[in-house]
User: Fold UDP-glucose 4-epimerase from Caulobacter mirabilis.
Amino acid sequence: MSSSSNAADAPVVLVAGGAGYVGSHACLRLAEAGFQPVVFDDLSNGHEAFVQWGPLEVGDVRNAEQLDSAFARHRPVAVLHFAGLIEVGESMKRPGDFYDVNVGGSLQLIAAARRAGVKAMVFSSTCATYGAPAYTPMDEDHPQAPLNPYGRSKLMVEQALADLDRLSGFRSIALRYFNAAGADPLGRIGERHEPETHALPLLIEAALGRRDGFSVFGTDYDTRDGTAVRDYVHVLDLADAHVLALRRLLAGGPGGAFNLGGGVGTTVRELIETVRRVSGRDIAVAEAPRRDGDAPVLVADNRRAVAELGWRPAYDLDGIVRTAWAWHAG
Ligand SMILES: NC(=O)c1ccc[n+]([C@@H]2O[C@H](COP(=O)([O-])OP(=O)(O)OC[C@H]3O[C@@H](n4cnc5c(N)ncnc54)[C@H](O)[C@@H]3O)[C@@H](O)[C@H]2O)c1
Ligand SMILES: O=c1ccn([C@@H]2O[C@H](COP(=O)(O)OP(=O)(O)O[C@H]3O[C@H](CO)[C@@H](O)[C@H](O)[C@H]3O)[C@@H](O)[C@H]2O)c(=O)[nH]1
Assistant:
């Protein structure tokens, strides 16, 4: 536990998946906001070294006994739920695992929270629940028709949470992230997925010479340069939104779903150019076919989060790439 841990009377928040990329940044912001994060994570993709702002309970969200014992020991006031499998491409290869962990695990976590008398959850959802854009930027009322089992597993949990919120008094907010990227500017934590499949860390590793180059998946999309468009959002801006959502639920405010993206679309080629400029290094780029399950364009209309949560994303693409570069190069 780091020296920045909070006083003994700070309200405890159980952070499922808090040893991972987004969850660890949320712990950082929770601690700064006066909460005491307790991480519950099976370390399947997380890192013990990322757990710096409170205790770690090693456990699987599919395991009711481990969950009950963590809830009994720490008595949280709310749950932030990041735990799960995250890669779109993987979900096309092993869909059963995605339903098992993302749906089965979420239902177990919700049930354990309810047994413990906890009534508030902030859930990590995704723009992948929308599927192909009927219009862009996408607002929260855009039809949800996922293109892959990953997106569908997240949508199923959103729907269960919405029913529980409406009918049972178990309150929740689903935060639909667009593409999380960047790192803690102080370099304490950053993005480390194993294996790494995300575009920005792969580009940075190529710029650092740790990879031979970078393959662009699809150059025949109907976009301004033929490559797919994404809305990259800084991981600490996501973390800020979690604190805002948590405070809203704890204050008795309404639940619901919110898009978290900067509202700016970036093509894969534009991302490559930004990494070249920020790093001052060249990157060998090859063209490859489209990746199964990928949407052509995913850009957020973030006005609901700005108006209702008071969310103010602070980082633009340059800031995202700079903090990611510093973390990987440092
Ligand atoms: N990274 C993104 O761009 C992005 C975008 C949209 C949504 N999300 C969602 O945000 C959440 C966090 O993503 P991330 O990038 O930090 O991923 P991550 O893999 O770094 O973190 C997920 C964490 O969950 C843990 N976990 C996995 N299965 C578990 C289980 N059965 N029991 C307990 N812990 C388990 C892992 O060990 C890991 O620490 C995920 O739910 C993901 O779907 C991420
Ligand atoms: O080697 C690579 C890797 C990615 N890409 C492209 O870069 C873009 C971004 O890809 P990636 O960083 O893998 O993110 P997404 O596939 O958009 O998925 C992320 O963002 C989603 C929301 O958009 C989340 O739901 C997922 O959890 C998260 O993995 C996509 O067009 C990819 O096809 C490449 O061209 N080459």
The two ends are 23 Å apart (CA to CA).
